[in-house]
């Protein structure tokens, strides 16, 4: 006679609570989307924003919202999700609270490859630049982990942070040198290099949408593998996980996410560092839920930072990469200082 296994009530309640917790995060994200498409040099009332989004008006405001502000907002959503998911996977892979595509130099490596490609081949569409970004992200990942793994202790959090900082500085210096060598041809890349959403419209979104879609969907299915890796390589292998192949796939997903994000709006740091820790505080150690929350909270952070950058100065706009960097730097310092109390 077969028996049906019933989950304990506490487990069901915990899962229900986690699922319901996504609702307020999604509502906050919706509010930020409405603010983003209505905020600019010419502010638009919320009612007019809604009319423009549903296509029931042909006013000039509607054209600005649909053709300029909406693509910028959508790019912020997918880039925020990609960076947050990439950071979550990296932290699970390395079992390291400081792992982040920006901190470890992955985004800087992708940016250097894009800048170098633009210097050699001239201005490129996003669909071509993304391949340079993939290659740069992959090479930076291998280089940083190889450097940090030297020595008896292996790739410790501090060594990874130091190696990533060195890689970021090196790649940033080379990128700046290339930009200074040909300022006219690479004028557009100068703003892109600091991480900016301004001037990113539908062509960029359409060209990169397939890479974002594949990367985000694939990342959401890595929860089980990350949970097993968190138990240690030996136990994960005993439970049937192919360690080397799984790590290779996970690193490929990170390179896909970070390469697409960097090609879209330049290197943006700290999103992948802060968001997984915030999600972990809400959900606990289960990576399936951490990934789900990161998909929502990453866009909340990036879009909120973009909105903040638009209102900080009366006559100019602060690039979103600068705003996120200012917000994330204290968090990074705290994680380094109190890393022993942070669990992965």
UniProtKB/TrEMBL annotation:
Compartments in which it is found: Cell membrane
Q: Which Pfam families match?
A: FecCD (PF01032)
Question: What membrane topology does the annotation report for this chain?
Answer: Multi-pass membrane protein
* Superkingdom classification of source: Bacteria
Entry keyword set:
Cell membrane, Membrane, Transmembrane, Transmembrane helix, Transport
Q: Where are the transmembrane segments?
A: 20-40, 73-90, 102-123, 129-148, 160-181, 201-221, 249-275, 287-308, 320-338
Q: Which InterPro entries match?
A: ABC_BtuC-like, ABC_transptr_permease_BtuC
Report the principal subcellular site.
Answer: membrane
Name the UniProt record assigns to this protein: Iron ABC transporter permease
Q: Which organism is it from?
A: Occultella glacieicola
């Amino acid at each position: 006679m077969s028996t049906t296994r019933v989950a304990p009530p506490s487990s069901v309640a915990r899962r229900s609570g986690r699922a319901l917790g996504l609702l307020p995060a999604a509502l906050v994200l919706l509010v930020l989307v409405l603010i983003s498409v209505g905020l600019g040099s010419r502010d638009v009332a919320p009612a007019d924003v809604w009319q423009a989004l549903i296509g029931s008006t042909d006013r000039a405001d509607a054209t600005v919202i649909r053709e300029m502000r909406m693509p910028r907002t959508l790019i912020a959503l997918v880039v925020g999700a990609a960076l947050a998911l990439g950071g979550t996977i990296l932290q699970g892979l390395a079992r390291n609270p400081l792992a982040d595509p920006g901190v470890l130099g992955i985004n800087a490596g992708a940016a250097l490859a894009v800048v170098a490609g633009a210097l050699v081949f001239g201005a490129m569409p996003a669909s071509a630049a993304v391949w340079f970004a993939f290659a740069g992200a992959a090479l930076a990942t291998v280089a940083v982990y190889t450097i940090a793994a030297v020595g008896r202790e292996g790739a410790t959090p501090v060594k990874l942070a130091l190696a990533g900082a060195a890689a970021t500085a090196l790649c940033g210096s080379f990128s700046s040198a290339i930009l200074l060598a040909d300022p006219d041809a690479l004028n557009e890349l100068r703003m892109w290099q600091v991480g900016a959403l301004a001037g990113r419209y539908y062509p960029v979104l359409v060209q990169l949408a397939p890479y974002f879609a594949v990367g985000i969907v694939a990342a959401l299915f890595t929860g089980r593998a990350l949970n097993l890796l968190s138990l240690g390589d030996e136990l994960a292998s005993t439970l049937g996980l192919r360690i080397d192949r799984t790590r290779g796939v996970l690193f490929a997903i990170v390179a896909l996410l970070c390469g697409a994000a960097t090609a879209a709006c330049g290197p943006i740091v700290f999103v992948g560092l802060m968001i997984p820790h915030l999600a972990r505080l809400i959900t606990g150690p289960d990576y399936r839920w951490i990934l789900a929350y990161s998909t929502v909270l990453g866009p909340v952070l990036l879009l909120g930072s973009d909105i903040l950058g638009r209102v900080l100065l009366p006559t100019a706009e602060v690039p979103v990469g600068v705003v996120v960097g200012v917000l994330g730097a204290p968090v990074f310092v705290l994680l380094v200082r109190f890393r022993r109390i942070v669990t992965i």
